[in-house]
Prior knowledge:
Blueprint: E1 13-17, H1 23-37, E2 55-62, E3 68-80, E4 85-95, H2 104-118, E5 123-127, H3 133-141, E6 145-148, E7 151-155
Parallel strand pairs: 4-5
Antiparallel strand pairs: 1-2, 2-3, 3-4, 5-7, 6-7
Bound molecules: coenzyme A.
Amino acid sequence: MLRYMPKAPSSGITARLALATDGARISSLLEVFRRELGYTVETTVPLPISHVGPLYCVLAEDHERDDLVVGFLAAYRCHNMVRGVQYVLITDAYVRSEYRRRGVATLLMNEALALGRRLGCQRVSLIVDKNNEGMHATAARAGFTEHSDMLLSCELEGGEAAR
Length: 163
Ligand SMILES: CC(C)(COP(=O)(O)OP(=O)(O)OC[C@H]1O[C@@H](n2cnc3c(N)ncnc32)[C@H](O)[C@@H]1OP(=O)(O)O)[C@@H](O)C(=O)NCCC(=O)NCCS
């Protein structure tokens, strides 16, 4: 399969799986995301970040700005019991507006694909609104194709074909 070869990300920016201790920093970035969308959230639950729990968080940091969190992605490991398929489902991805079009989301998506491979999943899927052209374009460049109305998927090498 032809894969998008990402341009070199902006210097000094890397992505990694978040640790439980990153929860507060990611929560502050979530607030920036909510402000951009105009959402008000009355109560916020602490992020249950854990490498063994259900929520996997990936973050991107700018090491030239005191490790500022410039983007994050949230994903879950899902089991389709009927089809016997395991997959990683990405439910959120966000990049600070001033860091967009610099390959940050691509870094985050690649980290999610690596996570899927490590977990032995057959695919990584992404829930995204039909009208979100930016996310659709980003996902397409990372190798995702339309799976159904609001779902894009990327089959992992060695995994079974989409069922
Ligand atoms: C969608 C989003 C995550 C993309 O992040 P990003 O870091 O700018 O993406 P990248 O720089 O990795 O983009 C990779 C490629 O995807 C495409 N792309 C990304 N954003 C695009 C846009 N707005 N319009 C068209 N193409 C776009 C481009 O081909 C881009 O490569 P190029 O810059 O060399 O042309 C970011 O715009 C964002 O946070 N948006 C608001 C939150 C959101 O809608 N999240 C998705 C909900 S699941």
